[in-house]
Amino acid sequence: MGSNSSNMNHIPDGQQLLQDTGFSAAQIIRLYERFEFLDKDNTGHLRPEDLETVPDLDMNPIGARIIGAFFPPGKETLDFGSFVRILAHFLPADSNRTRAGAQQEPANSTTGKLRFAFQLYDQDRDGKISRDELLQVLRSMLGLQVTEEQLQCIAERAIQEADADKDDAISFDEFRKSLEKVDIDHKMSIRFLR
Amino acid sequence: IGNMLKCYQSLMLIIPFEMADIFYFCRRGVESIVDDEVTKRFSAQELETWNLLTRSHYNFRHISLRLTVLWGLGVLIRYGILLPLRVTLAATGISLILVLTTLVGFLPSRELRFFLTEKVHVMCYRICVRSLTAMITYHNRENKPKNGGICVANHTTPIDVIILANDGCYSLIGQAHRGLLGMVQRAMVKSSPHIWFDRSEVKDRHLVAKRLSDHVADKTKQPILIFPEGTCINNTSVMMFKKGSFEIGCTVYPVAIKYDPLFGDAFWNSSKFGMVNYLLRMMSSWAIVCSVWYLPPMNREEGEDAVQFANRVKAAIAAQGGLVDLIWDGGLKRAKVKDAFKEEQQKLYSKVLVGEQEQGDNKSSEENPEEDKSYHGSANGQ
Questions:
Q1: How much is the pTM?
Q2: Contacts of residue A154 in chain B, CB cutoff 8 Å?
Q3: Which part of the chain is the EF-hand domain (chain A) (predicted)?
Q4: CATH pick for A16-89 out of 1.10.238.10, 3.40.50.2300, 3.40.190.10, 6.10.250.3280
Q5: What is the pLDDT of residues A50-100, one digit of tens each?
Q6: Where are the extended beta strands (E) located within B70-111?
Q7: How many Cβ pairs closer than 8 A exist between chain A and B?
Q8: CA distance A184 to chain B (A)
Q9: Cβ pair B26:A137 closer than 8 A
């Protein structure tokens, strides 16, 4: 199919997305097709219900949170540009070509990925993962398989390990520090097929 | 203090949870947003080479003048010559079915009725098949379904019925419709036994099962044709078979149908196209090419329940047709996943975190009876 960006004309913000994210033209086209497929009523926007039709996501213990990451509080619809920009977090870090005029740090850098994951925990966006928020995530991932006590113990241990300034919550820096040995790029990247 | 001790001990035993654990679920979730195994089965598959039909070209754009001219020529031929011919044939076929089956229904003698019904049906179906220009290859005809059994096949399109009925007489089973289709249904019933349900009866599974078993018990009746997937799938995979027809306990004759999408994709995407639209598209493609394999009959074995039997049949059909064997329910086209699946995921994850406790527990089982109970409780819970 070649890499001509001429057939991106019907994609909203196509050229802009090409510059801002690390996706190739072919990948953006592919994502647009997927976007159109998910957009069942052809409004040009996605709603949370559209994402919920994917069975794998519905089955995912933190599926609701992932959908929430696409729809920040107050936003009910998702246009294609935002869709792609969020997915850009999951590009492997090495696919970034140097772009003249790239303003900020690319979404798929380690920090970008960490920030995305941090937001999955930090639902009220106050910049800290409180004990409650941690418990909620654990409850989602474990359901009724463990007791309340076990849950508390696990959360206790996690906070003790990560919380450096002893304020009973995990800030973004503490989060990052506790994960410095983890290969973030590997764990938080997916292969986008042409 | 007892509580603190317990907590400390369990901390020692539990594999520590890591903040990074969420990455796994996160990645899986986003991967499924980008592409997933299930929803793509509900839309037509992509072709490797273009067959001059705009509808099967994913990224239609201008490549060269020559190609566009060829395509234009193709449109002329398809819509100018092929389509009218086919529509005429189809109209002839349908009216013949209506007229002839009604006529045969008036005959008094039962044997004569059976004899003529077969001839009439086969003739009309052949006409319909020609009207779609379906090139069908039947394999292993010695395994053709016999009376008193159930014929089970994978479902891609309503045309499956015509394709199979072209080669033999089947009793159909389905909802009673109104309008033209309803007329055809009522006409068919006059000369041979089909099972048409009212909408209200469909909900009553026992009623359905009873009518099915009554039919198969009568050895003079033709085999019933059933599509256990319940909905049209795009012919790259076989989805979960509903166990209803496998509970009856008669011989099952599996049939695998595989379409070659090169000359025309037969998949009916019911959320995108209505029936008439679909038929028009079928008749304006080049041709419908398919292969039908009759598989050796299967019976339910000792100690096998209906679900296992259904899966065994499904695997055989998938293997023969070169289709992917999926456990997912075709009903996911319209409905959402049941909570049981989410619980499975949670169970697996909790086993990773808490499961190791089992080995260490032998020593400390007196101190931690509650943890023991909760783990075993959850394992037996489902």
A1: 0.65
A2: 14, 16-17, 353
A3: 109-144, 155-185
A4: 1.10.238.10
A5: 888 888 888 888 888 888 888 887 888 888 888 888 888 888 877 655 454
A6: none
A7: 175
A8: 9
A9: no
